[in-house]
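Justification of resources, computational component.

The compute hours requested in this renewal are based largely on the per-chain cost of generating structure records like the one below. Each record pairs the submitted sequence with a full structure-token output. That output is archived, and it is also reused by downstream analysis tasks.
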Amino acid sequence: MKLRQLGTNGPQVAAVGLGTMSFADVYGPADDNESIAAVHRALDVGMTHFDTADMYGAGHSERVLGQALKGRRDEAFVATKFLARFPEGADRASWLGPNSGQYGDTSPEWVPQACDASLARLGIDTIDLYYMHRKLPDVPIEDTVGAMAGLVRAGKVRHLGLSEVAVDTLRRAHAVHPIAAVQVEYSLFTRDPENGLLDACRELGVALVAYSPYGRGILTGTVQSRADLAERDYRRFSPRYSEENLDHNAKLVDVVRTVADEVGASPAKVALAWVLSRGEDVFAIPGTRRVKYVEENADAADLTLSPEALARLDDALPPGAAAGTRYPEQGMRSVNN
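The structure output for this chain reads:
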């Protein structure tokens, strides 16, 4: 697995990591043993960058990842995120529902409590990269990052990150404490970071960690209709997977499929290789809970697309090509703040 430096003064980290949101039934029911096997295989192939969050399954994803890393903690670079507070008794079955009772909290008082809870669920002493999952409008970023910096001084966290923030928020945060990484959705379907955020990251020496590099699966070419989605699949609530948008979006994958045929790779590998081609400061954390996809994702790190192939992909899927927003209205209000 190729390594890239995480930020100006950060460690060498696997260019392709493993996102673990699917461990929490997001794309249909998850089997913990299958998820653990995926983590073990990722370690075996050098895909040692693992990303989770307290929100996923009301902490369930963190627990499963922690269980999988027992005895192999030193091999892993562990990233998690804080934001969600759940009522007593919340579990993996209720966390996504409209009546889950969860709410966001990025107050400086909550930050150390959230960190301690994540450490306990993960069963580790130190989090390698700790993200603020979203910027809340009523909490100054300076206050939140100031509290996060206290975790670094206490030895509970090694590096700080932000997720889905505006350029101004990143600059203000970085002035308080160095930010190692910004996590944001980035793919051929979602090119929003190219509208100033990626440039700001490079100016400040901050890595960009791309989640959903497959456009939540559509760029793999395996989703042609809503019938391909499980009954409780999270994507059923995504505007890009709606009845009116999915047909248009599925057709956009044709050029990815064509390039894949020409280079003897899968559409998924091509989509991931495109993300990695954006620069040595860009990382990808495709999510899966299946060993075969872990192996495919790891192989994609070795695929180099020609300038001609990259230009064809850029031309066929320019910013704004996908129909529909990437989140429902409420979710869109939580990004770029």
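The mean pLDDT is 94. The two ends are 34 Å apart (CA to CA).
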